[in-house]
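Whether sequence alone determines local backbone shape is best considered at the level of individual chains. We regard such an encoding as a compact summary of how the chain folds. The sequence in question and its structure tokens are set out directly beneath this paragraph.
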Amino acid sequence: MQVKSVAMKMGVRIESAEAVGDTIVLHGIAGTMPCETIIGAVEAIQVFKMCFKLSVLKILAKSLFSRKEKMDQR
């Protein structure tokens, strides 16, 4: 995934996820540094609702049934 802001663009690779208490913790690499993203229950529900759209579900289904390809840099 790529994170874009006014200040910079940074590649982020999520390597693992775990439930800790009432949060979801994502561990990965941001640029060249290890990072940790913590998502609370309310935020997780918001993300789920945003991703539960037909256009997003089509991309997910397409990626599940297509061959593994190298992720393009956008």
